[in-house]
Amino acid sequence: MLEQLSSGTMYAICGVIVAFVAGVCVVFMARAWRAGKALGMDTGKMKQTITASATFAVLPSVGILLGVIALSGSLGIPWPWLRLSVIGALHYETQVASAAAEQLGLSLSGETMTAQAFSTIALLMSVCIMWGMILATLFGKRYLNRISGGRRAAPAGEKREGFGDRAMTAMFVGMVSAYIGSYLGGFISGEGLLQFRGAWTPLVTAAAAALAMGGFTWLAEKKKMAWLDSFSIAGSMLIGMLAAILVGQ
Fold it and tell me: Residue 156: how many CB atoms within 10 A of its CB?
């Protein structure tokens, strides 16, 4: 089954989609550069922004690559490559794939994978994540108008938090609480001594990443090392992954 999932046909189908999305990125980058010059923006600052963005993208891509490698053992290489290159997120893809396999009574491994199981897993991974695009298409303009309207209403010289800022903060806190809550639940619910390490590995990983982010923020704000802002998220991700590896060993 893994040979079929990593066949030339699968590479061709997924490769065309990835190439199309990459082309769209290049087009938007060129249009953004021309728009910046038309607005009179400093070319040096635009180049600095591009460099910082490219640098910021390199470190998270290491984690994405590890995700592709991890999923390739059960879903082949082309499908995880497509998912994590276009719209997927590392935590989402692995979680949904594992949940779908569990509901099918299978483990997420190449030995138990079947054509029907792969079709079900791939369909679920696609359907569950497409709502962001649909909602953005239907309500994105209204949402942006509400954000900009809320900010324009602030008195001169006063920085008022808009609806978008509050919504993003609430969403982030809710997401973190859900994950931390699930980790604590697995830790408290009596996993057993043999599974104890697996129960608290996520907690150690989250704590290590949080401490790393706090350290990066402290250095950037207190020690005037603002350049660390471009590396803080990526660096925290890698430190959290390293902690998970060390605990697992």
Answer: 4
- Least Cα distance to 201 among 240, 160, 146, 153 occurs for 240
Taking the C-alpha atoms of residue 2 and residue 114, their distance in angstroms, rounded to an integer, is 9
Q: Is the pTM of this model over 0.70?
A: no
Contact 46, 36 (CB under 8 A): yes
Asked if 167 and 210 touch (Cβ cutoff 8 Å), the reply is no
Residue-by-residue DSSP string for 129-181 = HTHHHHHHHHHHHHHHHHHHHHHHTSPTT-----HHHHHHHHHHHHHHHHHHH
Q: Where in the chain are the domains?
A: 1-129, 161-249
Q: What does pLDDT average to in each consecutive run of 10 residues of the chain (249 residues)?
A: 92 95 94 94 88 75 79 91 83 83 85 90 89 88 72 54 77 86 77 56 89 93 81 82 85
Backbone angles phi, psi at 117, to 5 degrees: -65, -45
Q: Which residues, in sequence order, are CB contacts of 171 under 8 Å at separation 6+?
A: none
